[in-house]
């Protein structure tokens, strides 16, 4: 089904002629302006531009959904509405909400001190499988900005954080400044993301399954990410549930104004063992990563360290479920061939997806975040400001120089999105404009043929259109070598720790 969202309102009346995000997210039936049956696989395409303020949870529990922000003329930003109480996540897939794709969307929660909640996430995958987030901007969470409990998932080309950290509405604490968090996750790829500005959880991963299968091997690939300005726990990998099989390749961790010497676990990635449970060892392949603790990628172990309480001897200290405990300490980190969990057919990361950390930085700063709209490139003022902030190592406005903020306004504000045009003419309501259907063979502007796949490549016509809008035809391979953004100096000019 194709929901052509024609209203920014958060309503759900099947016959009012308005097709809303909520109706698509929840797979609700629509009777006007055209018929959509409930409960079906669906594409959410946008005829409108601007902010959608959710006034209650819109948890995605019906499988197969593609939220295509690139269809909006000028872009979409989700925000927490004033009536959403208690506050909870914005885009949220949970039990049942498998097979979800989110692309070119801004999800920016915002403070809710009057409506306390422990679940203020901009985006959350809540024990769901087969999820892709591509070119999203997930910010201003009060719990995390992106939290994922998932299997077979990818977050790529996205901007994560900052949170709204201080007195912003987290119910259990007045201070919560943690942005990017996966626990547990398996067969997860985190690639070419910017995670920025926080106290903890720059990239925090606890490989494993839910329900827990203690001691299993769990694979995660952490590729080309840029982590900036965390006070402690810039990166963490835990073996409390599983034996992590992790590839860290071409990632950057740099200091910012909030960095403090001696922060707990403030390495590119800190090894963490929960001494109350088990240490299931680690198997880590590290190549070409850089952090305040190693100015040369030849020092591949220098990117890693131990979280407070974890010792070289404790990373592999359990008597059951042990896997590959022949080495301990930082010797669990090796350089060379990428590692694959047993049973993985082959490593699915292609060599042309891998570039050195400097090119990875250029790629992230050039392309990360929601940057494609129907009418062209549309990186918004928020993403532009934070990208420029990394490039200049927090030149003015120095948002976080004196402390973490309590409001979106003090953090630079929401997006200023402009509608660049009205809906495209789409005579058959299949989500593909007449002009586009007339440009290509295999589609008919007068026939509802969104699901047809005349060229047999596995992508139905509607996805050919969505991929075309996202510039996949030029970006798919070329994006990995075409970033040309100005880079900050090593560790933002600060000396190696
Ligand atoms: Ca409606
Ligand atoms: Ca059409
Ligand atoms: Ca058609
Ligand atoms: Ca096709």
Layout of strands and helices, then pairs:
Layout: E1 2-5, H1 21-25, E2 42-46, E3 50-54, E4 65-68, E5 76-80, E6 91-94, E7 100-108, E8 123-139, E9 146-156, E10 159-160, E11 180-191, E12 194-198, E13 203-207, E14 217-223, E15 226-230, E16 235-238, E17 243-249, E18 252-254, E19 269-272, E20 283-287, E21 304-306, E22 333-334, H2 357-367, E23 372-373, E24 376-377, H3 381-391, H4 434-439, H5 461-469, H6 472-475, H7 479-482
Parallel strand pairs: 1-2, 2-4, 3-5, 4-7, 5-7, 6-8, 7-8, 8-9, 8-10, 9-11, 10-12, 11-13, 11-14, 12-15, 13-16, 14-17, 15-18, 16-19, 17-20, 19-21, 20-22
Antiparallel strand pairs: 23-24
The chain binds calcium ion (4 copies).
The site of one calcium ion has 10 residues, from loops.
Structural commentary:
With 497 residues, this protein is mostly beta strands. Helices cover 10% and strands 27% of the residues. The chain has 7 helices and 24 strands. It has helices at residues 21-25, 357-367, 381-391, 434-439, 461-469, 472-475, 479-482, and strands spanning 2-5, 42-46, 50-54, 65-68, 76-80, 91-94, 100-108, 123-139, 146-156, 159-160, 180-191, 194-198, 203-207, 217-223, 226-230, 235-238, 243-249, 252-254, 269-272, 283-287, 304-306, 333-334, 372-373, 376-377. The strands form 2 sheets. The chain has a 22-stranded parallel beta sheet that branches. It has a two-stranded antiparallel ribbon with strand order 23-24. The longest helix has 11 residues, at 357-367. The structure holds calcium ion (4 copies).
């Amino acid at each position: 089904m194709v929901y052509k969202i024609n209203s920014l309102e958060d309503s759900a009346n099947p016959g009012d002629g308005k097709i809303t995000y909520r109706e698509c997210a929840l797979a609700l039936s629509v009777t006007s302006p055209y018929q959509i049956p409930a409960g079906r696989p669906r594409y959410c395409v946008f005829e409108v531009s601007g902010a959608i303020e959710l006034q209650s949870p819109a948890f995605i529990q019906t499988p197969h959904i593609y939220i295509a922000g690139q269809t909006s003329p000028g872009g979409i930003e989700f925000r927490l509405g004033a009536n959403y109480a208690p506050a909870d996540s914005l885009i949220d897939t949970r039990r049942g909400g498998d097979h979800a794709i989110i692309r070119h969307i801004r999800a920016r929660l915002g403070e809710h001190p009057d409506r306390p909640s422990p679940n203020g996430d901009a985006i959350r995958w809540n024990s769901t499988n087969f999820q892709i987030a591509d070119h999203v901007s997930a910010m201003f969470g009060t719990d995390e900005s992106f939290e994922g409990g998932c299997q077979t998932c990818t977050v790529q080309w996205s901007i994560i954080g900052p949170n709204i950290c201080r007195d912003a509405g987290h119910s259990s604490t007045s201070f919560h400044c943690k942005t990017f968090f996966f626990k547990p996750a398996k067969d997860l790829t985190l690639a070419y993301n910017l995670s920025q500005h926080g106290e903890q959880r720059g990239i925090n991963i606890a490989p494993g399954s839910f329900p827990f299968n203690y001691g299993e091997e769990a694979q995660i690939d952490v590729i080309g990410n840029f982590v900036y300005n965390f006070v402690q726990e810039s990166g963490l990998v835990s073996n409390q549930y599983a034996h992590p099989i992790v590839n860290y390749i071409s990632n950057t961790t740099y200091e910012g104004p909030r960095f403090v010497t001696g922060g707990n676990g403030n390495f590119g990635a800190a090894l963490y063992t929960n001494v109350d449970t088990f240490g299931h060892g680690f198997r880590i392949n590290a190549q070409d990563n850089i952090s305040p603790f190693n100015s040369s990628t030849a020092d591949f172990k220098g990117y890693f360290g131990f979280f407070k309480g974890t010792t070289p001897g404790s990373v592999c200290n359990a008597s059951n479920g042990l896997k590959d405990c022949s080495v301990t300490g930082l010797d669990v980190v090796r350089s060379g061939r990428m590692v694959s969990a047993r049973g993985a057919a082959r490593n699915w990361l292609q060599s042309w997806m891998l570039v050195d950390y400097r090119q990875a930085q250029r790629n992230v700063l050039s392309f990360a975040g929601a940057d494609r709209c129907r009418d062209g490139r549309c990186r918004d003022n928020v993403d532009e400001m934070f990208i420029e902030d990394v490039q200049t190592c927090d030149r003015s406005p120095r948002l976080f120089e004196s402390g973490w903020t309590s409001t979106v306004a003090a953090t630079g504000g929401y997006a200023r999105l402009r509608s660049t045009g009205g809906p495209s003419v789409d005579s058959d309501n299949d989500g593909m404009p007449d002009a586009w259907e007339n440009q290509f063979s295999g589609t008919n502007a007068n026939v509802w043929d969104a699901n047809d796949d005349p060229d047999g490549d596995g992508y139905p016509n509607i996805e050919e259109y969505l991929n075309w809008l996202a510039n996949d035809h030029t970006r798919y391979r070329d994006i990995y070598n075409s970033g040309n953004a100005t880079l900050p100096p090593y560790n933002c000019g600060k000396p190696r720790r």
